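User: Predict the full complex structure for these chains.
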Amino acid sequence: MDIATLIGLLVGFGLIVWAIMSKSDLGNFIDPGSVAIVIGGSIAALLVCNPLKDFLGMAKVIKNAFFTKSSDAQKLIQDLVGYAEVARRDGILALEGMMRDIDDDFIVRGVQMAVDGTDPELIEQIMACEVETLSERHSSGKAILDALGRYAPAFGMIGTLIGLVCMLQDMDDPSKIGPGMAVALLTTMYGALLANLVALPLADKLAIRSAEELLHKAIIVRGVMSIQSGDNPRIVEQKLKTFLPPSLRGSEEDERAA
Amino acid sequence: MDIATLIGLLVGFGLIVWAIMSKSDLGNFIDPGSVAIVIGGSIAALLVCNPLKDFLGMAKVIKNAFFTKSSDAQKLIQDLVGYAEVARRDGILALEGMMRDIDDDFIVRGVQMAVDGTDPELIEQIMACEVETLSERHSSGKAILDALGRYAPAFGMIGTLIGLVCMLQDMDDPSKIGPGMAVALLTTMYGALLANLVALPLADKLAIRSAEELLHKAIIVRGVMSIQSGDNPRIVEQKLKTFLPPSLRGSEEDERAA
Amino acid sequence: MDIATLIGLLVGFGLIVWAIMSKSDLGNFIDPGSVAIVIGGSIAALLVCNPLKDFLGMAKVIKNAFFTKSSDAQKLIQDLVGYAEVARRDGILALEGMMRDIDDDFIVRGVQMAVDGTDPELIEQIMACEVETLSERHSSGKAILDALGRYAPAFGMIGTLIGLVCMLQDMDDPSKIGPGMAVALLTTMYGALLANLVALPLADKLAIRSAEELLHKAIIVRGVMSIQSGDNPRIVEQKLKTFLPPSLRGSEEDERAA
Amino acid sequence: MDIATLIGLLVGFGLIVWAIMSKSDLGNFIDPGSVAIVIGGSIAALLVCNPLKDFLGMAKVIKNAFFTKSSDAQKLIQDLVGYAEVARRDGILALEGMMRDIDDDFIVRGVQMAVDGTDPELIEQIMACEVETLSERHSSGKAILDALGRYAPAFGMIGTLIGLVCMLQDMDDPSKIGPGMAVALLTTMYGALLANLVALPLADKLAIRSAEELLHKAIIVRGVMSIQSGDNPRIVEQKLKTFLPPSLRGSEEDERAA
Amino acid sequence: MDIATLIGLLVGFGLIVWAIMSKSDLGNFIDPGSVAIVIGGSIAALLVCNPLKDFLGMAKVIKNAFFTKSSDAQKLIQDLVGYAEVARRDGILALEGMMRDIDDDFIVRGVQMAVDGTDPELIEQIMACEVETLSERHSSGKAILDALGRYAPAFGMIGTLIGLVCMLQDMDDPSKIGPGMAVALLTTMYGALLANLVALPLADKLAIRSAEELLHKAIIVRGVMSIQSGDNPRIVEQKLKTFLPPSLRGSEEDERAA
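Assistant: Here is the predicted structure of the five-chain assembly.
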């Protein structure tokens, strides 16, 4: 659970509501027609620019910005080193029995291929391709939010233009000019909020999450290849720890100092 | 048929029409002169920036965003593996008889070269060059829509400036100021709609379609090269399946488990 | 002669004139001082950002967007294959006599070096360097038009600001406010037209022309190198045709089928 | 201490305050609600787009733009050459005793690995990875300030829209229109100042600082590898000095001339 | 002396002054406070984003856009070929006596290393590193002007916002509204002029100058390496001339034809 995403959204919308209520009535800032133009128009543009399947998968993508498996790279490396020890001690076939206890499907598939005696080059190719596919799925998820960040302000402006044209064509009653313009400006505000508080920051967060997840997959690929080639567990650990920032690599230096 | 493109356009324009009719009369938002400036001006700019041939081919390009051959990568791989089996069992010449039943011209041309005994390197070069040419044709199609997405808002602004100058030069009758400005703003709205609901989203969709089609061509090139070199069909299948996302690769794991 | 460039400019300016005349008088939209600010200011900026030589060469560059040698890649390949046949049949020195009839200077220079027995590596280096130089000259031509496309709207805005400041400082006569603002807006309109109907589309067209011309040069370099190394004319043809899109490569397949 | 950062901020804000006070009262330009929208909204967006940990580390990152260790590349090279001399004269183990006096942790860790006899390739991999991690931490620090530079003007505009809508919905008292609009514009000004005087220039400064620090690390990596392989100290010096601009490399030429 | 830079600035500012004087009084467009905000604010931002040393070096950088050593690549190549002849005829040590007459420090340093018998690889590394350093110094000079081109319009807008807020808060005297707004707009105009007539075009010119100078350095590096390895002067000339555009390479073809 990435608490910052939720806090950010609550703080942001809370502030806007507070700012409005301190000067005016919140009801003056809610106009269902304006909401429909900005949200509906942006959704329409997203439907034109994405295949239906990707569009429907958007909710799943956004979820990743809020929830995220606790991903502990140190624990992961420890596990992989453990498998390497078993494989070295009892032979690689000994891993077959352990696979039921491994949570991560990607490790299971990789180890299974190693156990089956698949050609190492093919294992690496298949795992790399899976990582590549995951990376593309992440990018296309981020691309949808980026597109929302571009189209929401555009439809905000289109809504404001519609409102202004309506107001300008009927200026007989001067007392209606102000409120008419006020309503017209609401769509621009909706579009700016949707883009700058929701779509663009979520897209950035997804990019960071994606980088984290891809790092884990890279550690797993390297680990499985090391297990397959029967590397010394100490070497496996040293190799995998180069993926970690120095501050998380402490144990290694301790061991070396020992 | 990519239903999302059509739905998106219908929803988008439907919403705009509904938003206008709920506040004013649709007729107030239709001004043939303004339409002419935005559409005509954008077309003029596209003519200046593209060769006539590319400009006239634009309709064909846009069609790709709506209609698309059902492209089933799994079926394609199955077919290629089938040809590999025939070639391995009965010799590569046996493929000559099957070519009449192959729909995809690109496969036919590749297999024909293999049957003719053309030098493998030259086959790969020729096929790669064909893929490259296709990719460039796709890019130049997308480039036209991207250009439309840039020029439409520009001519919308130019139209609004013309309208404003007309209105400002003749302000004797105050009752005409509002409607004059309203008409002036229409071109900006047209330009924004043309760019953000039509041109830019269609350009994005074309990019996604293009990536799909190029992936298919890449699978075919790899398949034909494997058939030519007489690879074991099992190996051909494994190699080609690395192009698929894991979720579509099921059979492979089943087979391996068997 | 690229007819689309001319048609586009005529259609574009025709539309603008028509739009103006349908609402107002064309004379109201022509203000020599405003023209001077936009055009003069842009030229001044171009002088600051380009060496005098490049600036003066701009007219020559723009001409390329209108006129263009009929460039027929198929004919070019046919010619090169013809030279390869002569060189193979009668020895490379036999090409010396034919050189008077070759139009393209670049081919002549390349063949001359081959006839002179210059080291093949040096021939390729010299020809590649010439192509590189051409490509840079094209880019710097495009860069000037791109710069014009950036500076023209900027000086349009500067002109409008000058006009607005003049108008605002002297608002005693309300009847002059409208026309004053109208004149002020004209520079913005001029800048937008110069950028979006002339400079930016011409820059795009130059990029397309440049790509075509560089492709031809690449075909020639490859052809001359093949002739120099005494390749079989059939192989020369196959190699050069990989530069063509499949639709223009028909004869090759026919020959192979034969 | 990078005095320019501090001077720039003082001069910039001083000028703005002076400009305001020369025309109006500073109090008119301070509106706590507007400050809350711009700063609070930007912080909310930063929370959505960054993991909590990175957000909280922002202060530490910004500090780097003000304070910076005196980093003297010439001194660093001299030190490394000194260690190389010791290693060559007394054997690499002799460095163990000197390590207590070395300030830079990164040198210590590298030399320690060399002394321990770790495989040179692994030393280089581990050190390169540490540099890579540092570079990414710097980039993500800069990215937060860049994001602030994008979101601050956006929330400035959102605040202005809220203010305008409030003012337009209640125009009964004409004397309130001006001040209402004035307050509405304040948020746009706050956003522009925060972005253009603080966030974006600090981001640029961080990039320059980061480049300096990474250069130092690169010198250290090369130096440690040279020490490990027992290079002649003269060669070590020549190699390391290629990282310096010529103006700082004088001694080398002097020595050679000698 | 690059006359175009000076002409451009004179024409540009001349036009603006003429445009102002034809409609109003030049004094109306000069407001010291506005100048202070735009210039002072931009300088403040530049101080925040650049180390003090780079900021102070800006004047030196800008000078390069006006003045420039007459750099004649043909003459340079002729000189280098001359040194190659001497080295081949009388041995490389014979160059030592000629070095007092060589103007270009970079050639002297390179030849000196060759004469000293420094390892060729190290010579190339040291010279390449010097070119790299020069290229970075040029880029950071250009970067300062680019930053000025971004910050000047931003502070122009900030100044206009300050002016508008002042005007809006005190609208009791309607006759002051116009002039107040006029003064407010001046800062936007100053910012646009500073960016579009000075900073951005000068940045572009510096990039072109830098490319020229780096080409010269590349010719020198190649020349020195050829001299060091004792290449035939004819070959040296052919190699160096591939850096020139064909139009400047005439003599070569003449010689070959001879």
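The CA atoms of residues 226 and 236 of chain C lie 6 Å apart.
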